[in-house]
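Quarterly update from the structural biology core.
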Amino acid sequence: PWKSFDNLSNIQLSAGDKVLIKKGTTVTDQLVLEKAQGTKEKPVVIGTYGEAESKPVLEYIVDDNSATDIWEHIATPVIQLKDCHGIELDGLAISGTNGVDVGIHLKYNNTLNHEYVKIKNCDFKDLTGFTINDYRGLSERAAGKNITGEYCMATGICVSVNNYNIGVNDPGLIGLYIEGCTSTNCGTLLANAGNIQDTNEGD
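Predicted structure, tokenized:
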């Protein structure tokens, strides 16, 4: 077994692949996946293994002294999925620490129509860094500017679509499913700064 998520940076996960995190452990690395591409029938799974009752805790730690502005916090969520689809995250405890304000960031850069992301049985806690009023995106949108970038808030899950060069009315993600998740001391569970179709938030 690996001791950190560093090895994932050199691997492109595909349908049926699994990354399993041991129950009862705490991981302070950031989990970043880029272009992991499964399907609804054979998803890429980020899940758990082991006999412990407690979920694995992911709490990426950012050095406050190294962050020059609030955008650096958005760039470092606990989990960042870049241009990923056909993926399931199951049974994780995701905790904000030291100003990290986003649990899972689904980020799509000038790519559209990614299909299927399911987040289930995950607990989000203490994601309290900033609210959306801190970001320039709110005022720019109010002024009628066509801005679709990373306007995440203190949230468990954030979806952002940077579609500066493509059609702004097309969805970045088709099918986001949230089932059996909890949110404690977070700004919100879901912040959508992109265009999503067929979003279902379960209990």
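Residues 131-152 have pLDDT under 50 and may be disordered.
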